[in-house]
Structures are given as structure tokens and as C-alpha cells.
Amino acid sequence: MEQSRLRIFFRACGHLFVCIILLVLVLWTVAALYFDIRVAWLRIPGIAVYLFALVAALVFFKGFWKRVAGCVACALVVMLWWLSLKPSNYADWQTDVSRTAWTEVNGNIVTIHDLRDCDYRAEFDYTCQWQTKQVNLDDLRGLDLFLDYWGSPWIAHTMLSFDFGNGNYVPFSIEARKRVGQSYSAIRGFFRQFTLITVVSTERDVVRLRTNYRKGEDLYLYHTTATIPFARSLFLDYIGLADDLHDHTKWYNAITDNCTTQIFQLQAMRSQPWKLAILLNGKADEMSYKKGNLATDGMPFDELKRRAYINPAAQAANDDPNFSARIRAGRPGFPLQR
């Protein structure tokens, strides 16, 4: 009798677990139809057809597992359609992402085309210049890490900046490329709403935008202990990614293809073990500190992070041509002579 009750209990728990998974699947499928059907007036009819098929499966199939199979089959049809959606480089892009950087490598000389340099008057009021910039790989001196927080301490936007000496920095920011009228949404980021873009820019652009013009964002700057050979390898990986995204569009995804996961897919980073901290990248600085990847001047992490906060320095520097030097001045870990 006791064994029979336990069997019934565990079967009920198993069925409940399957039902929860199915509910999540149904919610994802409805959201995919709502967000990713490109013709707006077809979205509600599309959802209605899916839900009708779902109800029909529940009514006409007899038995729990047959009904589960029917529900999964309905979702699978939608998923196959969703996976068939192809990204494109041709769209009505917002001005700041209207061009994608691409490069030419000739020995140690790297020529970066369409490097962005936007002059901001407000977050959405700006004028963009597109530069052609040459750097010599022999001039590479180091690698710096920016972490940008806009809400949760567990989630941040990751940017890396390569130091070529004499105030010559080349930052990379892997972002969601937005069309005119779009704004970033973490929920939409789970669907096929944005493509990936590697923004190669000046620091006065990509850093100052976040510290001086956007509201509620906190930016931290760290100097890494990366060796020159490693920094060189990672730089070449980054320009390779920029070239690849220039030629072959890829969907952005808030979990699988974002500003941090893309870094860990680069050749130079593949030796790093995959950890949850890659997704919860707001703790990337603490993780890097523990692994000895940040220059610290012997400080405990809490003190290092407090002094890595650059918003006030960036706001004070603003239009200064020496913006990059001023946001680093006196900050722990940075060499006195840059």
C-alpha cells in the first residue's frame, strides 16, 4: 500500500514537472510568434492558429504522453519556422550602427575601416564620423577592461580596449545592432530581433556615451595583466570577428551570442573553462581579480573596484582630446607612463 502511494506521488510530481516545462515552451512559442513575425497584422492570427492547434492536440489525443507529444509537435513546427529566419546586413539601421567595421592586415600594419567616432549632444542626438585608422601590432602595450552596469550587479556590458601607446586606444564593444525605432530589450534579446555588431570606435565615443549621456549606467575600468603576445592574439581575434560579422550577419542572443559569450568563443580565449560567471558577467572583474588577471597595486578587490569607477572622471574630461589619459590618471594598476 505504501509503495503504491509513493508511486502515485512520484508519478504526479513527474507529470507536474513535465507540465511546467510545457508551459515554458508554450510561453516561448507565443513570444517567438509575437516578436518575430515580421508582418505586424499577422502576429495575432499566427498566435491564434498555434493555440488552436494546441487545444486540438489536448482534446483529440488520449493519454498524458500522447498529449505531451502533440504539444511538443505544435511547438516544433513553430521552432522550425523560427530557426529558418535569416539575419541580414541590409536594414534601416540606426545611424550609430549604420556601418560595420572591417580591416586589412599587411604584416604588422592593421588598417581599420569604418571606425566609429560619434560626437554626442545627448544619448539620441549625435553626429557620427567614420574613420580609417592604422595601428602597428609592434606598438601594442597592453589590454584594458571596461565593465558597464545598468541595473543588476550580476549583469554588465563588457568592453576591451587595446593600448597602442601615446594615448592611442582601440576599444571593441560587441553589441546588439538596432534598426530605426528599436531600443534594446533583454526580453526581445532572447528572440530574433537584433543582429550582432562589433563596434570599433574611439574611447571618447563608446565610453563617454555610457558615462556622460546615458542615465543610470556605471562604468569601471581595469588594467589587465595580459601579456603582449596574448593581447596581440586577442586583438587579431577581435578584428577577425569584426570582419566575419561585416561579411556574414549573425543573430544576437541575450544568452548564447552576446557581448561576453562572443569573447569566450575567440581563439585566444578558448582555453578558459566555461563558467556560469560568463553569463553572469557582472562578477567578471572579481573573477579576474582572483585569477590574477587584473593589475591591482596590491589592493584588496573592494578597494580596487571603488577606485576603478570612472564616471566622475569621464564627465570631467568630456571633450578633452586627452580623454583616455584622464580617465586612467591615478587609477590603480595603470603604468605611470602610457
Properties at a glance:
10 helices; 2 domains; 3-stranded antiparallel β-sheet; 8 strands; alpha+beta; 40% helix
Number of helices: 10
Pattern of helices and strands: HHHEEEEEEEHEHHHHHH
Uncertain regions spanning at least 5 consecutive residues: none
Rounded mean pLDDT is 90
Number of domains: 2
Overall spatial form: globular
Determine the fraction of residues in helical runs and give it as a percent range. 40-55%
Radius of gyration: 24 Å
Q: State the separation between the terminal residues, measured CA to CA.
A: 78 Å
Specify the biggest β-sheet: 5 strands, antiparallel
**Biggest sheet: strand arrangement:** 7-6-5-4-8
Count of DSSP E strands?
Answer: 8
Share in β-strands: 15-25%
Global structural class: alpha+beta
